[in-house]
Every structure is written in structure tokens, then in C-alpha cells.
Amino acid sequence: MYKKLGNLLKDAMKKAIDEQEVMGVNFLVRRGNDEIVYCEEGFSDREAGRKLNRDTIFRMYSMTKPVTSAAAMILLERGMLELYQPVADILPAFAKQKVCRDGQLMTPERPMFINDLLSMTSGLVYPDEQTIAGLAVGQVYAEAEKRLDSENPMSTLEFADRLAACPLAYTPGSSWQYGTSADVLGAVIEVVSGKKFSQFLEEEIFQPLGMNDTAFWVPEEKQERLATAYETVGQGQDKKMIRYEGNNLAIRNDMKKASAYEAGGAGLASTLDDYMKFARMLQNGGCGNGEQILHTKTVQFMTSQSLLPHQQMMMDQWIGLDGFTYGNLMRRCVIPERHRNLCASGEYGWDGWLGMYFANFPNEDLTVLMGTQKKDSGTFSLTRKLRNITLGELL
């Protein structure tokens, strides 16, 4: 029935590989209980001659964020977390935080709330070379990476406390900027639950859903399934793909051992089939694998939040997300006619730095997942092409 869709997807994937846009890619679509299409092309490791396939393990990077959000929702349901609760109530280091304004450090007009972490309105940012806040955060990441294999590695909680000592880019709630909020939320979940972040995720989400290939590291017996990361260099006839083996955001590229720092914004590795179990749990009102992970009303809350108008002004500057808002660590389409590609009202999801991609379409009961490992990708040209092919056929 969907042979045409599969052929169109495979043609686009082959073209991207031939043109050195990606080394390998797979793509999975489900509607309700039915698998609509699965396609795979290319290599997970060109040098070793390993093809990319269905059980290939990918570094999720920012596709970790929706999982962290779901973990926070579990604590919310149990009355262990309240979204207007100051972060400093749980992580005391945040009580002394300052905001950078006109080159001066000042006390913020209001504290940072848990809700600010979920909506990226906290004032916490990723490293950059232009701002006082970004430079300070960059130093924290540099130290965390330097200590990765030391006898004193930086923990999830220490990482959050070190971020608390960095100046905020703006007063919490006054703007929006993509940053380290989910990483701090991981530390919050540790303190509130009394468990290591990875243990909480394993017990509350991964184990109940049967996500057996999802964790913050990849053990030796699974290492051959971990996709190699690549990057495109050169242009025109000189364009080629080379291996990328650097660490990013204090995440070990080789994923060979568990880290003391478990990044709520970037640290997980998983497969398309595993992540599909998580995505379908959300699509099914919090139920997956016969387990009720979240209540239906909680999932509705998790997937329906919007930024306030003054916050949305900053989100609107994100090229490629016209018509989308942000909430609970995911994008959400609210004005589909403003988007410049095929989309649907109410769709939500996120992507990852190496090209992983997730989208749920609640009104159509549709889930789309894409796997690849290309440096600095996020949602890129191939993602949009495969989306348009799929949505053109199925919406």
C-alpha cells in the first residue's frame, strides 16, 4: 500500500548519500498500531564496512530533552515537583544567581522557576564566544570535558551548581533562549527523586517501555552497533565526509563508559525502535507496553504548552520553525500556515545535534523518526525532504 512512499524516501536518502550529505540514514513511520514504512541506506561505519540498519544505536543529543521532560511530568503527577517552585528550593546554588545586563551583574527581578527550565525561559544558555553568559558556560563545559576521564569527574549535580555560578543572559521569564535548562532539570530530578538521573529514567521509563537499548552509554557488547559520527568538509567536487571523533557538550563521543555527568539535554543513546516506544507512549496518552507511564491529562499538558508573546518573539528568530512555539522541551506547531514546509497543527517533537529527528502528529495518530549521525545537523535539508515526502502521502 505504501510502496510508493518507501521508494520516494529511499531515492531521497540515496541521493543525499551520493552527494556526501550523510553517510547513512534510516527512517521509521507509524500510524496507530501499524508500521507504515521503514527505510535504511548507507553506512553506520564506512571504514569498518558496517551498514546502517534497524538496530543501529545513535547518539540522541537533544532528543534526550523530551525524555527529561517526561521524567519531570512523572514527578509532577506525584506531587514531588511543582512548576512555579523556585529552582533554588531544590538546588540552593541558584539562590545567588546573577543576570548580566549592560555588562553589569545584577540580581534578577524574580527567581528561576522549574517551569522556566521546561520552557527554556530560564536565562541559561549554551556556550558562545560573544556574551558574558555564553563564555562563562563554555568554561564549565571545558572543565567538565577535561575531567571526563579523571579520578574526579564532574557529576550531574556539580555541573548544575557550576552553571548556577554563571551569569544568566536575561531575567528568568523575560525572554527565550535555547540552552542548558534541561541539564539543570536532570539535576533537579536527581535531588527530588533521591535517585541518580539514569536510575530514575531506567526504572520509570526505559524498563517499563522495554527500551533496552537506551542509556547514557553503550556497553562493549553493543559498541559495534553504535553509529560513527561524520562531518561534511569541502565544496563542489572536493566535498567529502570524514569521521568526527570529538566530544561535544561534555558527552563522550565513543559512549564507552558511564559518565558521572548525565546530561538531561544531550546525553542519551538509543535506536529508532526504542525511541518509537517512547514517542508512541506519548501518542497513546501515556500508555506503552501495557504500562501507564503518565496520565492522559499530563500528556495533554506536556504537549500543549506555548510561550508568552514576549518570549515567542525570540523563538520566532529560529530559522525553520516558523509557526512553532516551545514548551516542555519540545517544539509545537500552532500556526501551520506560517510554516514553509508541510506540517500539521498540534505536531510536536524535537531533533538532535547529530541529526536525530522526532515528530508526533496527535490529530493524525502519526509518528515520524529519522536516524543519522552528522555533525551540526539538527533539522537539516534531508530531514525536511523526508518529512515532506511522508506528510504529502499521509496527511
From TrEMBL:
Lineage: superkingdom: Bacteria
InterPro entries assigned to the protein according to its UniProt record, in alphabetical order: Beta-lactam-related, Beta-lactam/transpept-like, Diverse_Enzym_Activities
Classification via Pfam families: Beta-lactamase
SUPFAM superfamilies in the cross-refs: beta-lactamase/transpeptidase-like
Domain Beta-lactamase-related: start-end pairs: 11-378
Protein name: Beta-lactamase family protein
Species this protein is from: Roseburia porci
Taxonomic lineage: Bacteria, Bacillati, Bacillota, Clostridia, Lachnospirales
